[in-house]
Amino acid sequence: MIEGKAGRNMTAEIGEQPRILAELVETRAEIAAVAEAVARRPPRFALLAARGSSDHAALYAKYLIEVLLGLPAGLVSPSTTTLYGARPDLRDVLLVSVSQSGGSPDLLEVTEAARERGALTVAVSNTPDSPLTRAAELAVPVKAGEEHAVAATKTYSATLLALYLFVDAVRGGIGTEVADIGRLAQHSLDSTEAEVARAVDRYRFADRVITTGRGYSYATALEAALKLAETSYLATRAYSGADLLHGPVAAVDEDTAVLAITSEGNGGTAMRDPLDAVAARGADVLAVGSAASAMRAAVRIELPRTAEEVAPILEILPVQRLALSLALARGFDPDNPRGLRKVTKTR
């Protein structure tokens, strides 16, 4: 195991999240003002543009928009604009660009092109004066503070909360379901330490990991796979619980570790059949979420009950700590993952 300063930044930033989330809720009025501007120009549908961890946050927002607002929503393929020059008619469309740094050239180009083609553009970023924020007509601040660890932690959870507050405000909500999110986040970190440590001992020598979830929690499964890959270099694949049963389950055996995100609600209920199937094939299942106790699993990390659409903000917290601790146990420094930089610029 690496000693000393390894993982210091990631450790600190995981611990900052309860305070950051609580403070972001206190600034809800600022986000609500952006939502009011959107509500005055009701869109026909919404598009979301993002990369990396922000892409997982955008998927979460897609579920929020479709379920809570009743609008069709889709994820943009930036290369259709940047590589192929597509310029579709986007009148009466809401484009939400999600980027922690706000500096990725492809997202900037997509946002500028969408605005030129008639879209109402909203930037969701942790960098207030970023090129992306300046390019968009409206901006939702993430307010997580500067993040030093390469692996996104506090910016991810704060982006989820910012997106929830935004969508909730568009529908006329006042953030009731997240009023106590800071306390719940602290409890989610404090109460799960022992089970995270148990999971690290059990999975530190794993070679193959599948992460899975359904509904809102599918975004958490994708982010979990990314965190494990970039910090512990694990060969990790993420699947929707439904897609897992369509073919990938054939590759599951007793050498497969399955990290399942299972919170109470429709998505969590739908995870029972997939987990029964992988457990029957000998997979070692780790269930994380407020419904973990009801799942067929070898290890369970239970979290507080919340509205289903809020659960991903808490689900990711013990998963981040799991990724951090697994990296250290496997002899890696998660603050310095090989081949990665904090800001990745793509086109």
TrEMBL record:
Show the InterPro entries listed in the entry: GlmS/AgaS_SIS, GlmS/FrlB_SIS, SIS_dom, SIS_dom_sf
Q: Name one GO biological process term.
A: carbohydrate derivative metabolic process
Q: Which PROSITE patterns match?
A: SIS
Keywords in UniProt for this one? Aminotransferase, Transferase
Q: Determine if Transferase is one of this entry's keywords.
A: yes
Establish whether keyword Transferase is in the entry. Answer: yes
Q: Which GO terms describe its molecular function?
A: carbohydrate derivative binding; transaminase activity
One Pfam family in the UniProt entry: SIS
Tell me the protein's name.
Answer: Glucosamine--fructose-6-phosphate aminotransferase (Isomerizing)
